[in-house]
Each structure stands twice: as structure tokens, then as C-alpha cells.
Amino acid sequence: MSPKIKAHTVKPGEKxxxxxxxxxxxxxxxxxxxxxxxxxxxxxxxxxxxxxxWSTKNVRKISCNDLKIEIGEPRNGNVLDxxxxxWYFDGEKMHHxxxxxxxxxxxxxxxxxxxxxxxxxxxIRDVVNRIRIGDKFDFVAEAKGTHDFVxxxxxxxxxxxxxxYSITKINRLDLKGAVDGKPIKGTAYFQRVFVNAxxxxxxxxxxxFENGGVLTYTNQMVFRKAVKKHIAFFDGKELYELNDILxxxxxxxxxxxxxxxxxxxxxxxxxxxSYAHSFWQFKKKSLGFIPNKLTYNEYPSTISDFEFVxxxxxxxxxxKELGKAVGNAEHTTGYLL
Length: 337
Hints:
It is a single chain. The chain has 337 residues and is mainly beta. It has 2 domains: 1-197, AttH-like fold (Beta Barrel), CATH 2.40.370; 198-337, AttH-like fold (Beta Barrel), CATH 2.40.370. Helix content is 1%, strand content 63%. It has 1 helix and 26 strands. It has one helix at 319-322; strands spanning 8-9, 29-38, 48-57, 61-64, 67-70, 75-76, 79-89, 94-108, 111-114, 120-125, 128-133, 137-142, 153-160, 163-179, 182-196, 202-209, 214-222, 225-234, 239-242, 246-250, 256-262, 266-274, 278-283, 293-310, 315-318, 325-335.
């Protein structure tokens, strides 16, 4: 990974499965991560959601939700020694640990697959992404937007020395396919990440508006001090970015997050309301007095009270123009070294 890699668009599939020459130092982490926002005709205010993650980490032992993972060789040619994990909110009930299995991840030129008890696969043909999970889920996701923000993009960053990350992501894709053989539609988010740094607490989100807009934010912290703050708001035509954010969490199992940001050019505020919750808790051997546990919370959520103001023009954008929003809000606690 090179320092300060500027974000740029990439061809569909580029940098997703080319792992052969990528370094894998001690502690480094790979994952391929999908979020699917699926329509829910029974209760449109609570869209179904599915998350699936294929991952390996170059450590001897780690646990996830009490599943003990022992990694032999994290990479043997094009085969990774790792795990596949998923949760599924079916519109009424959250299925925690829908998948949580040790497996071999076979990575090929145009996709990956697992030998897990529930077979899974992710393949790309031209611009079409296909994801299969057993006999239950068969999805096709396609990035159709013309703006760079909703095209496949790659960027990376270094924190200290050779410690940092690189990421290929797609902020919004159109989704179709089937659940239990019944047709569905919706939207999706994807990221493929390589991390060579400790995992620190963060807030993060990806939200999709009914009329084509996208909203993301991130707030990474070390000892409660923000080291990265960013909001990106795409109204369907134009992208607005603010390197300022304040996130306040209130509530317990299903919290709300008040989010705001302001620069000389823009002002934004909104409320994130969660309607379901799942989590992954990672543990490693403690390092004396240093904690080595990360709790990774994910909240299927909607947005209310949205308001964006372009101070230069006086233009105000609200949920009335954008339509309903569905997405996922993350909040992690702890550290994983």
C-alpha cells in the first residue's frame, strides 16, 4: 500500500480478487463485505437487511461471537484460511449468526467461494455482481449510476509508518434476485478492505434515499479523540462533502444517533433511528493491561429530520425531495490490536 492514495474510480472487479502479490504481514486483515437493503411489502418502514462477510486475519487465534478461530496459513496460493459470517433481519426478527462458520475461501480471477456447510459465492461477470448463500438467497447487484460517487472506487491511507488500509467500494448498487425463491428488489453496498493497522472505535453509515441519493459518514476515534471525520451527501446529481461531524448516541438496544456537521459552505443535520441490531464481538489474548476486544454493532436504520443547506445558494434539501431512506449505522467499542 502506498501512502495517501487518492480515491479514484476503477473498473468493475478491479482490485477485488487480486490477492496473490498483496503483502500479508502479521495482524493484517482482509474482508469482502456486502450489505443488502431488501424491500419489505409487509412493513415498508422496516426493510429487510442482510450482511455477509468473508474474511481472514493473519493471527494465530481469535474469537468471534465465541467461535474460536485458529488460522494456520492465512493464504495458501489462492485459498484463504478464514471464516464466513452473516446476519439477516427478515422484516420482523433479527437472525444473529445466520452464518458463522470456519471455511476455506477460494479466491479466483472473477470471484470467491467457500467450502462452508452453507455454500456461499460472490462472482462478477462484466458489471454484474452475483451473490449466493445456500438455497435461500440469490442476488444480482449492479452499479448503474453515472456519478463517480456511486461507481466502483479505490482509495487507501497510511496512519503511522506502514500501518494503514486500502478499500475498494461501491456506495450504491441496484439489487434484484430472490429470497426463498420469491423475487425481491432493493439496493446494496459493497466494500473489499485490506487493513494493516489496529481496529479502533468508529461510527459509520451508508444510507440510500428513495430518489437515488446516498449519505455516508465516518467518525474514527482514539481515546475518544476523532482521528477521521467525514460526511458525504449525494443528492442524486451532486456530491457534497464535509470534513466535520458530531455524532451523539442515545438509547440502549435500539439507539438513535443525532448527526450534524457544518463548514463555511454547508450545514447538515439528521437523526438516525435504528429498528434492529446485530453485533460481532472479536477477542484476542489480552496484552497485559491493554484491552484487546472489539464489539462491532450494526443497526438497520432509517433517517428522519434530514436537512442539508448549501450556504452559497441558500438551497435547502430535506427528506421531502429525497424520499425515504434506509441504511445501516455502525458503532464499535473497544480496540483490537
